[in-house]
């Protein structure tokens, strides 16, 4: 029986080993890539070793007693049941150890809370289930969505190396500069965490929390939302792309130009095909989690759009729901999350996909007029 | 004249009533204690089944068995059922059985209320479990039910969940009042407070904690109810409310709650270790004061669950220092247990095995708790699997092993038969190995960066998750063995003497095994 159990465990172990080449047996925290993350790592290791030493002493006494003072070895129980000196000692010594531990912890905490004199400010807004990055004073703002295809999650395709830790647009920051993060949320509470930066801060509706980081090395650092935020909590990763200040400046200029071009797109004449193509992309990154790829939704929480009366007949109501959301439900207000072009495209897509075939085109300018008319 | 009447009365000393009405109408502390214990074990198996669903989904990366919305219902219901349905009622059951026997009382002070507080529980959990079958599904916002996910964004079944919590809370408060009334009023002559067995002491302190914090829980769920149905905005930022306020109130309840789930186990273990070491407990007085200190401090550490919500620096420092301070009285307890074993004459029957494992593994959970107290480091641990590992180490080998140790220790007294020692030791070793296999690797994946409450994860977490799942299945399956051992012991076996453990102390061992339906009708004399 026991031998069988062992064989099975061995088989499972081998399965685990061979299951994925990229699977790792990592057991510890990353020291990270910032001064703060290294201080945090040192605190972590210090308190860990303190625990190991205390544990070794206490468990040592227990195991010693278990082996030496067992009745089967003829141990005769002692009678003592108190000793004031010992009791005072093991109250005072741990207290001193704790004070010794509290000092460096306090120093690091003060450093973490010093958000003054930042070079760059980025407002991070958590939505169900994506992050928005808004570079303050730069007119650059974008959504960052999970880039892992749904078929990988459903095990219909091989999983990539950065499965669930990849996004369509990462947050780009320069190395060596103090980046202040102003973190908030639009619906429920989320939490923005990148282990390599040792930054974890809750994104709370109605609050703007501050954090900061200064990254030493260019690189790509990955993290995830760490506060349960509903259905797709596991599917809103964070990717930080740290570049040299020159590369960052180039990226920023490119983003500004793209934003200007995007604004121009609003006044452009769009064909149904162009809008459908763009709309499908927007739908896939933004809407599909609730309303599903086939447009049938997951009633009653997430209503279907296919053959929906509103989608087929009431354009104004349809635009209103997408722009302003439905209060008290999971339907968010996308007016500030998506550009006019994207909203027009996705509304057009929804009115023509899955056999809805209304043939109607909703142009970006219609969305702009709707917003201005509010 | 009165002597005649008394004799007459004694002739009619009655046993239990017959049929199901015995259980529905009983006011006997032993019957009610047994019902509490059976109920909590049923909830333990149900909550464990939900955990098996969670571990099966997490066996490999990708979504295999369940969808994320159902996964969230599983984590939520697992937590709620284990905390409110399994651990808390189990300790109330132990208190019902043992507190009157330990202090030489004939019954609980308020026997009718005792019956009512038990029967509220099936109602509460019937309501809670029924949400799994409702349209829109069961609560899916985690057992901590943070607003606004649980209010504005919660499923319709949230209202049922709120009423279930209300009922369970009323039951706990009544149970606590009853225990305090019993301990303070019904002790046998000569049993001063400082002569009380530690299980009685820790339960007395726990009961005060319950009375202090269960109304706070009732308050917070009522505010949720108002937000959902009556248009208030306690927790809705858009209406001028404050989502962080929810967390402050919840954890003001939640942190003492953690000690509610562990202090009675401290008490039981403090009786079991001396019994099998054949040596008096080291530092009885300091044990009592340490328990009091832990309970007192537990009211001033709640925000250490909220280090990442953006509390100001000074607040963060206060809660960090206060939390670290809890390590001192907790350390005193652990040192006392270790010293009790030192130079004893040890044997390793099932209660002792569970008690020793309790001390060692709970201490490991204490160490990770100390690490979590360091606020800057907590930014890396918070809401990861490291936290899941931490609280399972204090709750499984803490609360649950404490309950198993107690059950084996007192089963002979309850049933009149010895349990099967070989099976019990098998139960221990399977639980021990399974539990460590399940929860130790969670430290690793948490430190490597895996958030908690996710149904799917990157491949770098795959290996340890598979190990965890194997351990969890092993631990889960082993509990059916415990059910078998208990049923076997109830049905028969080697008859147990009044005092089956030679090193045991206390009034409960002065009555025959099984304990008669009515004990201590005349109070014993304690010297």
TrEMBL record, chain A:
Major localization listed first in the record, in broad terms: membrane
Matches recorded under SUPFAM superfamilies: Cupredoxins (SSF49503), Cytochrome c (SSF46626), Cytochrome c oxidase subunit II-like, transmembrane region (SSF81464)
EC number, as in UniProt: 7.1.1.9
Transmembrane segments: 47-67, 88-105
Top-level taxon of origin: Bacteria
One example GO MF annotation: heme binding
Subcellular location: Cell membrane; Membrane
Keywords: Copper, Electron transport, Heme, Iron, Membrane, Metal-binding, Oxidoreductase, Respiratory chain, Signal, Translocase, Transmembrane, Transmembrane helix, Transport
Domain Cytochrome c: 274-354
Cofactor notes: Binds a copper A center.
UniProt feature coiled coil, ranges: none
Family statement drawn from the similarity comment of this UniProt entry: Belongs to the cytochrome c oxidase subunit 2 family.
Physiological role: Subunits I and II form the functional core of the enzyme complex. Electrons originating in cytochrome c are transferred via heme a and Cu(A) to the binuclear center formed by heme a3 and Cu(B).
Descriptive protein name: Cytochrome c oxidase subunit 2
The organism of origin for this protein: Halopseudomonas bauzanensis
Gene behind the chain: coxB
TrEMBL record, chain B:
Enzyme class: translocase
Transmembrane stretches, start-end: 35-56, 76-97, 118-138, 158-186, 198-226, 258-276, 288-307, 319-338, 350-375, 387-411, 432-450, 470-490
Catalytic activity: 4 Fe(II)-[cytochrome c] + O2 + 8 H(+)(in) = 4 Fe(III)-[cytochrome c] + 2 H2O + 4 H(+)(out)
Keyword Transmembrane helix: yes
Domain of life (superkingdom): Bacteria
Domain Cytochrome oxidase subunit I profile residue range list: 23-527
Entries under NCBIfam families matching the protein: CtaD_CoxA (TIGR02891)
Protein name: Cytochrome c oxidase subunit 1
Gene: ctaD
């Amino acid at each position: 029986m026991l031998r069988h159990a062992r064989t099975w465990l061995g088989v499972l172990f081998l399965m685990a080993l061979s299951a994925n080449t990229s699977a790792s047996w990592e057991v510890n925290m990353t020291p990270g890539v910032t001064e703060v993350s290294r201080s945090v790592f040192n605190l972590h290791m210090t308190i860990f070793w303190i625990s190991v030493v205390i544990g070794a002493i206490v468990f040592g006494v227990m195991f010693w007693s278990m082996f030496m003072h067992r009745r089967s070895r003829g141990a005769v129980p002692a009678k003592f049941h108190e000793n004031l000196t010992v009791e005072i000692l093991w109250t005072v010594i741990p207290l001193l150890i704790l004070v010794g531990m509290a000092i460096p912890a306090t120093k690091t905490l003060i450093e973490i809370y010093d958000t003054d004199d930042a070079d760059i400010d980025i407002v991070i807004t958590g939505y169900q289930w994506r992050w928005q990055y808004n570079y303050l004073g730069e007119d650059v703002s974008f959504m960052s969505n999970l880039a892992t295809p749904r078929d990988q999650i459903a095990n219909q395709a091989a999983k990539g190396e950065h499965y669930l830790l990849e996004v369509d647009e990462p947050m780009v920051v320069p190395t060596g500069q103090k980046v202040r993060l102003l973190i908030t949320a639009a619906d429920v509470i989320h939490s923005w965490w990148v282990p390599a930066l040792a930054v974890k801060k809750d994104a709370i509706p109605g609050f703007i929390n501050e954090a900061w980081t200064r990254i030493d090395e260019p690189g790509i650092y990955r993290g995830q939302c760490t506060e349960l935020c509903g259905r797709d909590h596991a599917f809103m990763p964070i990717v930080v792309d740290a570049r040299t200040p020159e590369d960052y400046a180039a990226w920023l200029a490119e983003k500004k130009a793209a934003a200007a071009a995007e604004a121009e797109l609003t006044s452009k004449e769009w064909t149904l095909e162009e809008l459908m193509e763009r709309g499908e992309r927007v739908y896939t990154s933004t809407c599909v989690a609730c309303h599903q790829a086939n447009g049938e939704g997951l009633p009653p929480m997430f209503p279907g759009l296919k053959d929906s009366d509103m989608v087929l007949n009431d354009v104004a109501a349809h635009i209103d729901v997408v722009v302003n959301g439905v209060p008290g439900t999971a339907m968010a207000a996308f007016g500030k999350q998506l550009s006019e072009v994207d909203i027009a495209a996705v509304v057009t897509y929804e009115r023509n996909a899955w056999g809805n075939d209304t043939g109607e085109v909703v142009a970006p300018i219609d969305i702009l007029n709707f917003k201005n008319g509010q | 004249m009165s002597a005649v009447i008394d004799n007459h009365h004694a002739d009619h000393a009655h046993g239990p009533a017959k049929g199901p009405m015995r259980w529905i109408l009983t006011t006997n502390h032993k019957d009610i204690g047994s019902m509490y214990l059976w109920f909590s074990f049923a909830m333990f198996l149900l909550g464990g089944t939900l955990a098996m669903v969670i571990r099966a989904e997490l066996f490999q990366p990708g979504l295999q068995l369940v969808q994320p919305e159902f996964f969230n219902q599983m984590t939520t219901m697992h937590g709620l059922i284990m905390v409110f349905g399994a651990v808390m009622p189990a300790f109330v059951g132990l208190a019902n059985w043992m507190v009157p026997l330990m202090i030489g009382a004939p019954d609980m002070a308020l026997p009718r209320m005792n019956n009512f507080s038990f029967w509220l529980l099936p109602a509460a959990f019937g309501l809670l479990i029924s949400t799994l079958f409702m349209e829109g599904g069961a609560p899916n916002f985690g057992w901590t039910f943070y607003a606004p996910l649980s209010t504005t964004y919660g499923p319709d079944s949230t209202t049922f969940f709120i009423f279930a919590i209300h009922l369970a809370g009323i039951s706990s408060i009544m149970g606590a009042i009853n225990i305090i009334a019993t301990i303070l009023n019904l002790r046998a002559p000569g049993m001063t407070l400082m002569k009380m067995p530690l299980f009685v002491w820790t339960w007395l302190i726990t009961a005060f904690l319950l009375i202090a914090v269960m109304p706070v829980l009732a308050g917070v769920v009522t505010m949720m109810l108002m937000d959902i149905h009556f248009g208030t905005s306690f927790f809705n930022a858009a209406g001028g409310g404050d989502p962080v306020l929810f967390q402050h109130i919840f954890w003001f309840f939640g942190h003492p709650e953690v000690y509610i789930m562990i202090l009675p186990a401290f008490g039981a273990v403090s009786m079991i270790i001396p019994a099998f070491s054949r040596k008096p407990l080291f530092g009885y007085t300091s044990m009592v004061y340490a328990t009091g200190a832990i309970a007192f401090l537990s009211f001033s550490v709640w925000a250490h669950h909220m280090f990442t919500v953006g509390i100001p620096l000074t607040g963060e420092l206060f809660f960090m220092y206060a939390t670290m301070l809890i390590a001192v009285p907790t350390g005193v307890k652990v040192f006392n247990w270790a010293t009790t074993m030192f130079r004893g004459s040890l044997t390793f029957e099932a209660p002792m095995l569970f008690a020793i494992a309790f001390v060692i593994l709970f201490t490991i959970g204490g160490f990770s708790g100390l690490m979590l107290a360091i606020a800057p480091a907590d930014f890396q641990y918070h809401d990861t699997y490291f936290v899941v590992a931490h609280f399972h180490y204090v709750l499984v080998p803490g609360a649950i092993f404490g309950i198993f140790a107690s059950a084996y220790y007192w089963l002979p007294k309850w049933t009149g038969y010895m349990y099967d020692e070989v099976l019990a030791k098998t139960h221990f070793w399977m639980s021990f190995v399974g539990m460590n296999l399940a929860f130790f690797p969670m430290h690793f994946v948490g430190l490597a960066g895996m958030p908690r409450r996710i149904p799917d994860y990157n491949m770098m977490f795959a290996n340890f998750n598979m190990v965890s799942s194997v351990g969890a299945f092993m631990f889960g399956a082993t509990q059916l063995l415990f059910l078998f051992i208990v049923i076997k012991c109830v049905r028969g076996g080697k008859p147990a003497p009044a005092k089956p453990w030679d090193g045991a102390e206390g009034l409960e061992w002065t009555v025959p095994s099984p304990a008669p339906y009515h004990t201590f009708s005349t109070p014993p004399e304690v010297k």
